[in-house]
Amino acid sequence: MLEEYEYTEPSRKRVYVLLLLLVLLAGIAIFVAFRTAGLKGVLASPDKQSDANAATVAAASSPPAVQPDGTSRDPDKPPAEAKEPPKPVEEPNEQKPTDPNDPNDKRPLRPAHKHPAFTQRAAERARMVDWQIEGRGIKDPNVLMAMRVVPRHAFIPQTEDRYAYADRPLPIGNDQTISQPYIVAFMTETLRLDPNSIVLEIGTGSGYQAAVCAEICRQVYTIEIVEELAKAATKRLKELGYPNVSVKAGDGYFGWPEHAPFDAIIGTAAAGRIPEPLIQQLKPGGTMILPYSDRDGLQYLLLIAKDQKGNLRKSTVMPVRFVPMTGEVQKPQAESNK
Asked: What torsion, rounded to 10 degrees, do the Cα atoms 11, 13, 18, 19 define?
Protein backbone atom coordinates (compact mmCIF):
# COMPACT_ATOMS: atom_id res chain seq x y z
CA MET A 1 0.00 0.00 0.00
CA LEU A 2 1.38 3.28 -1.15
CA GLU A 3 1.81 6.03 1.19
CA GLU A 4 0.28 9.36 0.38
CA TYR A 5 2.90 12.10 0.31
CA GLU A 6 1.89 15.57 1.27
CA TYR A 7 3.96 18.67 0.49
CA THR A 8 4.40 21.07 3.22
CA GLU A 9 3.38 24.72 2.67
CA PRO A 10 6.95 26.07 2.27
CA SER A 11 7.74 23.44 -0.33
CA ARG A 12 4.76 24.44 -2.47
CA LYS A 13 5.78 28.09 -2.47
CA ARG A 14 9.27 27.24 -3.63
CA VAL A 15 7.85 25.20 -6.55
CA TYR A 16 5.60 28.07 -7.66
CA VAL A 17 8.47 30.54 -7.55
CA LEU A 18 10.67 28.25 -9.64
CA LEU A 19 7.93 27.79 -12.23
CA LEU A 20 7.40 31.57 -12.45
CA LEU A 21 11.13 32.16 -12.90
CA LEU A 22 11.25 29.56 -15.66
CA VAL A 23 8.37 31.26 -17.50
CA LEU A 24 10.07 34.67 -17.21
CA LEU A 25 13.39 33.30 -18.40
CA ALA A 26 11.70 31.64 -21.36
CA GLY A 27 9.95 34.92 -22.31
CA ILE A 28 13.18 36.89 -22.04
CA ALA A 29 14.98 34.33 -24.16
CA ILE A 30 12.33 34.49 -26.88
CA PHE A 31 12.37 38.34 -26.89
CA VAL A 32 16.15 38.48 -27.12
CA ALA A 33 16.15 35.94 -29.93
CA PHE A 34 13.67 37.92 -32.06
CA ARG A 35 15.45 41.21 -31.32
CA THR A 36 18.80 39.82 -32.32
CA ALA A 37 17.41 38.30 -35.51
CA GLY A 38 15.85 41.67 -36.54
CA LEU A 39 19.05 43.63 -35.99
CA LYS A 40 21.03 41.10 -37.95
CA GLY A 41 18.61 41.50 -40.92
CA VAL A 42 19.01 45.25 -40.94
CA LEU A 43 22.75 45.25 -40.39
CA ALA A 44 23.57 42.31 -42.61
CA SER A 45 24.02 44.46 -45.88
CA PRO A 46 23.90 48.23 -45.07
CA ASP A 47 25.25 49.20 -48.54
CA LYS A 48 22.48 47.39 -50.41
CA GLN A 49 19.36 48.52 -48.54
CA SER A 50 17.93 52.01 -48.30
CA ASP A 51 14.74 53.67 -47.23
CA ALA A 52 12.88 54.87 -50.33
CA ASN A 53 11.06 57.60 -48.42
CA ALA A 54 14.30 58.83 -46.87
CA ALA A 55 15.86 59.01 -50.32
CA THR A 56 12.92 60.97 -51.67
CA VAL A 57 13.03 63.45 -48.82
CA ALA A 58 16.77 63.88 -49.21
CA ALA A 59 16.42 64.52 -52.92
CA ALA A 60 13.66 67.06 -52.38
CA SER A 61 15.41 68.88 -49.57
CA SER A 62 18.88 69.16 -51.07
CA PRO A 63 19.12 72.01 -53.63
CA PRO A 64 20.38 71.21 -57.14
CA ALA A 65 23.86 72.25 -58.07
CA VAL A 66 23.78 75.65 -59.73
CA GLN A 67 26.23 76.74 -62.37
CA PRO A 68 27.51 80.33 -62.72
CA ASP A 69 25.04 81.01 -65.57
CA GLY A 70 22.11 80.23 -63.28
CA THR A 71 21.29 76.77 -64.72
CA SER A 72 21.19 73.62 -62.57
CA ARG A 73 23.09 70.46 -63.39
CA ASP A 74 23.40 66.89 -62.15
CA PRO A 75 26.32 66.72 -59.66
CA ASP A 76 27.14 63.22 -60.93
CA LYS A 77 27.66 64.48 -64.47
CA PRO A 78 30.60 66.54 -65.73
CA PRO A 79 29.83 70.26 -66.05
CA ALA A 80 28.45 71.26 -69.43
CA GLU A 81 30.09 73.91 -71.54
CA ALA A 82 29.13 77.45 -70.60
CA LYS A 83 26.19 78.74 -72.63
CA GLU A 84 25.85 82.24 -73.99
CA PRO A 85 23.43 84.43 -72.06
CA PRO A 86 19.98 84.63 -73.69
CA LYS A 87 19.55 87.44 -76.18
CA PRO A 88 17.07 90.17 -75.27
CA VAL A 89 13.68 89.95 -76.95
CA GLU A 90 13.24 92.62 -79.60
CA GLU A 91 10.09 94.32 -80.81
CA PRO A 92 9.17 92.99 -84.26
CA ASN A 93 9.38 96.45 -85.78
CA GLU A 94 12.05 97.89 -83.50
CA GLN A 95 14.97 99.34 -85.42
CA LYS A 96 18.56 98.87 -84.38
CA PRO A 97 20.79 101.93 -84.58
CA THR A 98 22.15 102.28 -88.08
CA ASP A 99 24.90 104.33 -89.61
CA PRO A 100 23.33 106.48 -92.34
CA ASN A 101 26.72 106.62 -94.05
CA ASP A 102 27.05 102.85 -94.28
CA PRO A 103 26.30 101.87 -97.91
CA ASN A 104 26.22 98.18 -96.98
CA ASP A 105 23.33 98.53 -94.54
CA LYS A 106 20.31 97.46 -96.62
CA ARG A 107 17.89 96.81 -93.77
CA PRO A 108 14.47 98.33 -94.49
CA LEU A 109 13.12 100.83 -92.01
CA ARG A 110 9.84 99.80 -90.38
CA PRO A 111 7.23 101.59 -88.23
CA ALA A 112 8.04 101.38 -84.52
CA HIS A 113 4.47 101.44 -83.07
CA LYS A 114 5.70 102.93 -79.78
CA HIS A 115 3.48 106.00 -79.80
CA PRO A 116 0.53 105.79 -77.35
CA ALA A 117 -1.94 106.34 -80.21
CA PHE A 118 -1.37 102.79 -81.44
CA THR A 119 -2.84 101.32 -78.26
CA GLN A 120 -5.72 103.80 -78.07
CA ARG A 121 -9.18 102.99 -79.49
CA ALA A 122 -8.04 99.61 -80.81
CA ALA A 123 -11.52 98.14 -80.36
CA GLU A 124 -12.99 100.87 -82.57
CA ARG A 125 -10.46 100.12 -85.29
CA ALA A 126 -11.25 96.42 -85.06
CA ARG A 127 -14.97 97.11 -85.52
CA MET A 128 -14.21 99.48 -88.39
CA VAL A 129 -12.28 96.77 -90.21
CA ASP A 130 -14.83 94.05 -89.48
CA TRP A 131 -17.88 96.04 -90.57
CA GLN A 132 -16.71 98.64 -93.07
CA ILE A 133 -13.75 96.99 -94.78
CA GLU A 134 -13.55 93.21 -94.49
CA GLY A 135 -17.33 93.06 -94.45
CA ARG A 136 -17.38 94.83 -97.84
CA GLY A 137 -15.00 92.51 -99.62
CA ILE A 138 -11.44 93.61 -98.79
CA LYS A 139 -9.43 90.39 -98.39
CA ASP A 140 -5.72 91.28 -98.51
CA PRO A 141 -4.44 90.31 -95.01
CA ASN A 142 -1.70 92.98 -95.18
CA VAL A 143 -4.27 95.69 -95.85
CA LEU A 144 -6.57 94.46 -93.08
CA MET A 145 -3.64 94.39 -90.67
CA ALA A 146 -2.58 97.93 -91.63
CA MET A 147 -6.09 99.29 -91.17
CA ARG A 148 -6.28 97.71 -87.72
CA VAL A 149 -2.92 99.15 -86.69
CA VAL A 150 -2.86 102.73 -87.99
CA PRO A 151 -4.61 105.07 -85.50
CA ARG A 152 -6.88 107.14 -87.77
CA HIS A 153 -7.85 109.39 -84.87
CA ALA A 154 -4.26 110.69 -84.79
CA PHE A 155 -4.64 112.12 -88.32
CA ILE A 156 -7.73 114.28 -87.85
CA PRO A 157 -8.51 117.50 -85.94
CA GLN A 158 -9.83 117.12 -82.41
CA THR A 159 -13.13 118.66 -83.52
CA GLU A 160 -13.74 115.54 -85.64
CA ASP A 161 -12.41 113.05 -83.08
CA ARG A 162 -15.73 111.32 -82.41
CA TYR A 163 -16.07 110.47 -86.11
CA ALA A 164 -12.54 109.08 -86.43
CA TYR A 165 -13.69 105.53 -87.21
CA ALA A 166 -16.93 106.33 -89.00
CA ASP A 167 -17.31 105.31 -92.65
CA ARG A 168 -16.97 108.81 -94.01
CA PRO A 169 -14.37 111.37 -95.17
CA LEU A 170 -13.52 114.12 -92.69
CA PRO A 171 -12.21 117.66 -93.11
CA ILE A 172 -8.56 118.26 -92.15
CA GLY A 173 -8.31 121.97 -92.97
CA ASN A 174 -7.28 123.97 -96.06
CA ASP A 175 -10.35 122.64 -97.91
CA GLN A 176 -8.89 119.12 -97.86
CA THR A 177 -10.24 115.86 -96.45
CA ILE A 178 -9.10 112.49 -95.17
CA SER A 179 -10.66 109.72 -97.26
CA GLN A 180 -13.19 107.31 -95.79
CA PRO A 181 -11.57 104.12 -94.45
CA TYR A 182 -13.10 101.81 -97.06
CA ILE A 183 -11.71 103.84 -99.98
CA VAL A 184 -8.25 103.91 -98.36
CA ALA A 185 -8.33 100.14 -97.96
CA PHE A 186 -9.74 99.53 -101.45
CA MET A 187 -7.11 101.66 -103.21
CA THR A 188 -4.32 100.10 -101.16
CA GLU A 189 -5.46 96.56 -101.93
CA THR A 190 -5.67 97.36 -105.64
CA LEU A 191 -1.96 98.24 -105.70
CA ARG A 192 -1.03 94.72 -104.48
CA LEU A 193 1.82 95.96 -102.31
CA ASP A 194 4.47 93.73 -100.78
CA PRO A 195 7.33 94.36 -98.31
CA ASN A 196 9.69 95.38 -101.13
CA SER A 197 7.35 97.87 -102.83
CA ILE A 198 8.36 101.50 -103.34
CA VAL A 199 5.28 103.73 -103.47
CA LEU A 200 4.67 107.29 -104.64
CA GLU A 201 1.62 109.11 -103.26
CA ILE A 202 0.23 112.26 -104.82
CA GLY A 203 -1.63 114.32 -102.21
CA THR A 204 -0.33 113.63 -98.70
CA GLY A 205 -3.18 115.38 -96.93
CA SER A 206 -3.13 114.25 -93.30
CA GLY A 207 -0.65 111.42 -94.00
CA TYR A 208 -3.13 108.63 -93.21
CA GLN A 209 -2.97 106.92 -96.61
CA ALA A 210 0.84 107.11 -96.53
CA ALA A 211 0.90 105.48 -93.09
CA VAL A 212 -1.34 102.62 -94.23
CA CYS A 213 0.94 101.95 -97.20
CA ALA A 214 4.02 102.24 -94.99
CA GLU A 215 2.75 99.39 -92.80
CA ILE A 216 3.03 97.09 -95.81
CA CYS A 217 5.72 98.34 -98.18
CA ARG A 218 9.39 99.24 -97.97
CA GLN A 219 9.22 103.01 -98.62
CA VAL A 220 6.61 105.67 -99.30
CA TYR A 221 7.37 108.98 -101.01
CA THR A 222 4.48 111.40 -100.71
CA ILE A 223 3.98 114.91 -102.13
CA GLU A 224 1.60 117.59 -100.86
CA ILE A 225 1.03 120.87 -102.74
CA VAL A 226 -0.32 122.69 -99.65
CA GLU A 227 2.82 123.51 -97.69
CA GLU A 228 1.01 123.82 -94.36
CA LEU A 229 -0.41 120.31 -94.70
CA ALA A 230 2.97 118.95 -95.80
CA LYS A 231 4.65 120.32 -92.69
CA ALA A 232 1.91 119.02 -90.39
CA ALA A 233 2.01 115.56 -92.00
CA THR A 234 5.81 115.43 -91.74
CA LYS A 235 5.67 116.18 -88.03
CA ARG A 236 2.79 113.78 -87.40
CA LEU A 237 4.38 110.85 -89.23
CA LYS A 238 7.68 111.42 -87.47
CA GLU A 239 6.02 111.51 -84.03
CA LEU A 240 4.10 108.31 -84.79
CA GLY A 241 7.33 106.57 -85.79
CA TYR A 242 7.19 106.13 -89.57
CA PRO A 243 10.83 106.25 -90.72
CA ASN A 244 9.90 104.78 -94.10
CA VAL A 245 7.76 107.76 -95.18
CA SER A 246 9.31 110.82 -96.86
CA VAL A 247 7.16 113.93 -97.34
CA LYS A 248 7.83 116.74 -99.79
CA ALA A 249 5.96 120.01 -100.29
CA GLY A 250 5.44 120.46 -104.02
CA ASP A 251 3.30 119.81 -107.07
CA GLY A 252 2.54 116.12 -107.38
CA TYR A 253 2.04 116.50 -111.13
CA PHE A 254 5.81 116.17 -111.64
CA GLY A 255 6.19 113.20 -109.32
CA TRP A 256 9.49 112.58 -107.55
CA PRO A 257 11.99 111.65 -110.29
CA GLU A 258 14.94 111.35 -107.87
CA HIS A 259 13.38 108.19 -106.40
CA ALA A 260 11.77 106.77 -109.55
CA PRO A 261 10.83 104.27 -110.83
CA PHE A 262 8.02 103.32 -108.46
CA ASP A 263 6.31 99.96 -108.06
CA ALA A 264 3.03 101.71 -107.36
CA ILE A 265 1.59 105.22 -107.56
CA ILE A 266 -1.54 106.33 -105.71
CA GLY A 267 -3.35 109.62 -106.17
CA THR A 268 -5.72 111.11 -103.60
CA ALA A 269 -6.97 114.12 -105.60
CA ALA A 270 -9.04 114.07 -108.78
CA ALA A 271 -7.49 115.22 -112.05
CA GLY A 272 -8.99 115.78 -115.48
CA ARG A 273 -5.98 114.11 -117.11
CA ILE A 274 -3.24 111.71 -116.17
CA PRO A 275 0.07 113.51 -115.52
CA GLU A 276 2.59 112.24 -118.06
CA PRO A 277 5.54 112.39 -115.58
CA LEU A 278 3.73 109.89 -113.36
CA ILE A 279 3.35 107.43 -116.22
CA GLN A 280 7.04 107.76 -116.97
CA GLN A 281 8.00 107.18 -113.32
CA LEU A 282 5.85 104.05 -113.00
CA LYS A 283 8.03 100.93 -113.16
CA PRO A 284 7.27 98.32 -115.86
CA GLY A 285 4.99 95.82 -114.16
CA GLY A 286 3.77 98.54 -111.81
CA THR A 287 0.27 99.78 -110.99
CA MET A 288 -1.20 103.25 -110.57
CA ILE A 289 -4.61 104.20 -109.20
CA LEU A 290 -6.02 107.71 -108.96
CA PRO A 291 -9.38 109.50 -109.10
CA TYR A 292 -10.17 110.75 -112.59
CA SER A 293 -12.67 113.49 -113.40
CA ASP A 294 -14.34 113.44 -116.81
CA ARG A 295 -15.70 116.40 -118.76
CA ASP A 296 -19.07 116.12 -117.06
CA GLY A 297 -17.47 116.39 -113.64
CA LEU A 298 -18.12 112.76 -112.75
CA GLN A 299 -15.31 111.04 -110.86
CA TYR A 300 -14.23 107.44 -110.77
CA LEU A 301 -11.13 105.54 -109.81
CA LEU A 302 -8.90 104.82 -112.78
CA LEU A 303 -6.57 101.82 -112.60
CA ILE A 304 -3.52 101.89 -114.85
CA ALA A 305 -1.21 98.89 -115.26
CA LYS A 306 2.09 99.09 -117.14
CA ASP A 307 3.44 95.87 -118.62
CA GLN A 308 7.11 94.96 -119.02
CA LYS A 309 7.20 96.57 -122.47
CA GLY A 310 5.77 99.85 -121.19
CA ASN A 311 2.28 99.39 -122.62
CA LEU A 312 -0.59 100.74 -120.53
CA ARG A 313 -3.86 99.04 -119.68
CA LYS A 314 -6.53 101.33 -118.23
CA SER A 315 -9.78 100.40 -116.53
CA THR A 316 -12.37 102.24 -114.46
CA VAL A 317 -13.07 100.79 -111.04
CA MET A 318 -15.76 102.64 -109.11
CA PRO A 319 -17.38 106.08 -108.80
CA VAL A 320 -15.86 108.31 -106.11
CA ARG A 321 -15.77 111.89 -104.89
CA PHE A 322 -12.35 113.46 -104.16
CA VAL A 323 -11.12 117.02 -103.83
CA PRO A 324 -9.66 118.32 -107.12
CA MET A 325 -5.95 118.13 -107.86
CA THR A 326 -4.43 121.60 -108.16
CA GLY A 327 -1.30 123.00 -109.72
CA GLU A 328 0.16 122.14 -113.11
CA VAL A 329 -2.57 119.64 -113.93
CA GLN A 330 -5.14 122.48 -114.10
CA LYS A 331 -3.31 124.14 -116.96
CA PRO A 332 -4.25 123.31 -120.54
CA GLN A 333 -2.35 120.25 -121.77
CA ALA A 334 -0.64 122.13 -124.59
CA GLU A 335 0.71 124.67 -122.10
CA SER A 336 1.97 121.98 -119.71
CA ASN A 337 3.93 120.27 -122.48
CA LYS A 338 5.95 123.40 -123.22
From this structure: 110
